[in-house]
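Re: that chain you flagged

S.,

Sorry for the slow reply, it's been a week of failed gels. I finally had a moment to sit down with the sequence you sent. For the record, here it is as I used it:
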Amino acid sequence: MQEGYVIIHDCARPFVTRRIIRDCLYALRDYFAVDVAIPTDDTIICVNERDIIEQIPERARLRRGQTPQAFRLSLIRQAHREAHPETKVTDDCGLVLEQGLSPIKVVRGERTNIKLTWPEDLYLTDKIFQVQGIDMLPPHEERLGKLRGRVVVLFGGSGGIGAALAEKLRKIGAIVNVFSRSVGNCDITDYSSVQQKLAQVHRDYGRLHAVVNTAGSLGIGKLQERDAEEIRREVDVNFMGSINVCKAAIPYLRSTRGSILLFASSSYTHGRAGYSPYSACKAAIVNLVQALAEELHPEGICINAVSPARTKTPMREVAFGKEDDEGSLLDPDSVAETAMHALVAPNLTGQVINVNQAI
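Prediction finished late last night. Pasting the structure tokens below so you have them in one place:
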């Protein structure tokens, strides 16, 4: 029978990644003890009791230790069982090393896998939470089956990612209702219009499980050279439209403990020259999702945002024309696939789901 593995992690490190945990488990196939560390950027000095430098170790061989630390069960049991009462090590790998029980394999950590120690770390933590998304959700065909028979309202689904998502949802058996300004049946900048469409769907089916907003507007040009009303319209579509959708959807999603899915963009982490209002709106979407996740958690409603990299959509083509590197653009189907998984991922809320490559 395969021996059990033990992973020990600091509760003060909230940003451990799946990749780190996966690498630790893989390393345990060949080693009995695994540590996590990153190279040090700083020169490390060793001082005596009078703060006089005694040694400057070679930086290339130095690492900054993190957690988790991983062990085969028999080894970590032995290390603790045989530890001397006056041992002064700071972690479990130190215990193994002190007793000479096993070589300790080191796997690569992450710069963001910080330990909350000082008050200023809370500020850094807040910023990491603000901009850090999660990797694309892995395919889970069995879970997607839960979408069969579910009533979904999709705003902005007449083209691009929205159209691809509507098609995929219908193929899997969801009941999809698409509303879009381009086909003349809903303008998400008009709250009453959004209310009416959701009420209509609820009357028709008696339930509502998910509401998705893919509607967007992308204007190009330097801020000082663009028309003020055009900018206002763009902000209304990209930000106020999502607020309207969320506010109108919440009453209908309470009974089904349903979900809301919005769309950000890779530009939310860093504003892009030439389309500053769009970038600002996408950053606002992320803040909206994070705030509403806390508000809606007691009611069982989940809300997330999908953040795709550059995607080949009609909106992008209108804005940028034919691009030299079109082959590097994501296909809308790939983004739609991730969006479907986001709708059924259990207990996923307040997250930004990055899509950087085809699923």
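What I noticed first: The two ends are 35 Å apart (CA to CA).

Talk soon,
D.
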